[in-house]
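Give me the fold.
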Amino acid sequence: MGTGWGIYNQPTATGNIAGGTVGDLLARDKEGVLWLYLGKGDGTFAPRVRIGGGWNAYPHLVGIGDGTGDGRADLLAMDAGGGTYSYAGTGDYRKPFKSRVATNLTNGYTWFRLMNVF
């Protein structure tokens, strides 16, 4: 996969975020910017695409596959207070997620521990 991944503090595999035929990767840098790496299908990735800033509000990001049942991969985020939010995938790499929706996971910390995030 190459070098230089030390600039990121939160990588997560997402499955197919961008509507292609192969899995993609998200990585948050130390400034809180989330980047999308589109899988090319040969074990490599296309150059990164900036999703946006402010993602350092979430200590934990997890690619959850299709959590909404619409056929697109989604992202789950947990804030420092234990609130969890779902970002539904759009299938478009230019705007890969819809606006966040608070989840009904009442015990986010326990759930994330079970997912081996801590």
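The longest strand covers residues 8-15.
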